[in-house]
Design goal:
The longest helix has 9 residues, at about 150-155. The protein has an 8-stranded antiparallel beta barrel. The protein has one helix at about 150-155; strands at about 15-25, 30-35, 40-50, 60-70, 80-95, 115-130, 140-150, 165-175. The protein is mostly beta strands. About 25% of the residues are buried.
């Protein structure tokens, strides 16, 4: 019988990842990267998010320290797999407006910018991987459905705000090398 190897931060399935995301709670588009730890479970990243100017709101620029945990990493070389996911993030927004907002009934000024704020996201992720081009190990495409802590709390505490409205869909791509 062989002893199991301890899980350490040094054991990875890929050393680094570069990620781009469309939609979600990090602006309309975000990009960044970072290391991959704990056998592919923990994906910390430093990201930049952008939301263009809209009627009544200036453009929003965010710096995000994102900490994703993928509870079921790809084992066995599957091309497509599903996993529950969570993220704990630190957002710093510039300007006078926040990208995060709740329905009109929430107190005005609740999300003032440029204050840093922590967010917790809970949901699920679908992954589709292919062999990466050139020196890259893999290219992964993801679709996520994630609920943000403040929105979920609002949905639970307020009548007339359905829980499904607290969740958002985003699409991403990540290179791992």
């Amino acid at each position: 019988m062989q002893a199991q190897e301890p899980d350490s931060l040094g054991r990875t399935t890929g050393k680094w990842h570069l990620r781009a995301q469309f939609a979600g709670y990090q602006g309309l588009f975000s990009v960044g990267g970072g290391p991959v730890f704990c056998k592919g479970v923990w994906h910390p990243a430093l990201m930049y998010g952008f939301a263009p100017r809209t009627e009544g709101r200036d453009a929003v620029h965010q710096i995000i320290l994102r900490n994703d945990v993928v509870f079921l990493p790809n084992k066995g070389g599957k091309r497509t797999w599903y996993s529950p996911a969570a993220s704990l993030n630190l957002l710093v927004e510039t300007g006078r407006h926040s990208y995060l907002s709740l329905p009109e009934r929430f107190p005005p000024g609740y999300y003032m910018a440029p204050l840093p704020r922590f967010t917790l996201g809970l949901g699920g992720r679908m992954h589709r991987t292919i062999n990466g081009p050139g020196p890259f190990q893999t290219l992964a495409f993801t679709a996520e459905i994630v609920g943000l802590d403040a929105y979920m709390w609002y949905a639970i505490s307020e009548r007339g705000f359905p829980l499904h409205a607290a969740f958002g869909l985003s699409f991403g791509a990540a290179l791992r090398w």
